[in-house]
Design brief:
The chain is α+β, with helices and mostly antiparallel strands and 253 residues long. The chain has helices spanning 2-9, 12-29, 33-48, 55-66, 73-83, 86-91, 94-98, 105-127, 135-146, 183-192, 213-226, and strands at 153-159, 165-173, 197-203, 232-240, 243-246. The protein folds into two domains: 33-116, DNA polymerase, domain 1, CATH 1.10.150; 131-246, Cytidine Deaminase, domain 2, CATH 3.40.140.10. The termini are far apart.
Length: 253
């Protein structure tokens, strides 16, 4: 009898192992579902970039850095629903971003960093060669800087005698449909930075880049003030979500 009891003890480790197995599986099943999703999303991006990736998924990749321990897909979708696209989310003001539940300082800073990086990259491309020989780079920089802004901005690209960029500067910020521009101040600033030519740029938050009568008249006034001082106005570019317009291309100046 004692041997039989001894033999039964040899089965105990097997029973213990069998009983422990469900516990291991239970722990695995408690792994947050979003961790696998994050890994798959990162792998897709590593393999093919953003090709075929909707805006909300690209936003998820950005949000992973700011929110390491939560499913960020609902927030990414909420941001796209609110602002319309990835670009518009990145360009949104801090105040408007914080209106979306779940958006805090770290997310706002992350988006601002991306926006600043895009502008710096496009601006450096302008500096690499004469602006007038790289018009597509000019448009790309203007759109990246202003096309999705919620308020009107007026900026000036100041160029030297070789038409290379000296300075890219925002002169004024206004409301959703108006920015005050002072022609003499624009020309005064051009003289201060020793610019030989300028390109005027502003955005239409409505999305439609069609120049208004006020845009045309303001541009012609700047041309009149600048010309006697030897400063050429190469163009006035208007950008919006729907595209861009060139007053020079439209023969309005």
């Amino acid at each position: 009898m004692s041997r039989a009891r001894g033999g039964s003890l040899s089965e105990a480790p097997q029973r213990a192992q069998t009983e422990a197995q469900p516990q291991v599986e239970s722990r695995a099943s408690k792994e947050p579902h979003y961790k696998g999703h994050r890994a798959r999303l990162r792998e897709r991006f590593a393999d093919a970039g953003d090709q075929g990736m909707p805006d909300y998924e690209l936003l998820e990749l950005v949000l992973f850095r700011s929110i390491p321990q939560r499913d960020v897909k609902p927030l990414a979708k909420a941001l796209v629903d609110r602002f319309g696209s990835f670009a518009e989310v990145i360009a949104a003001s801090p105040g408007r971003l914080r209106e979306v539940k779940g958006v805090g300082d770290s997310i706002v800073t992350e988006f601002q960093l991306i926006g600043a990086a895009v502008q710096r990259v496009t601006r450096e491309k302008l500096k690499a060669r004469p602006v007038l020989s790289s018009w597509s780079a000019v448009i790309a920089h203007c759109r990246a800087s202003m096309a999705f802004a919620a308020q009107e901005e007026f900026r000036v690209l100041f160029l030297d005698k070789r038409n290379q960029l000296i300075l890219d500067e925002v002169q004024q910020r206004g409301t959703v449909d108006h920015t005050p521009v002072y022609p003499r101040e624009v020309v005064k600033r051009a003289l201060e930075v020793a610019a030989s030519a300028i390109i005027l740029v502003h955005n239409h938050p409505s999305g439609d880049p069609t120049p208004s009568n006020a845009d045309i008249q303001m541009t012609r006034t700047i041309v009149e003030v600048a010309k006697p001082l030897g400063i050429e106005v190469h163009d006035h570019i208007i950008v919006g979500k729907d595209g861009h317009a060139s007053l020079r291309g439209l023969r309005l100046i």
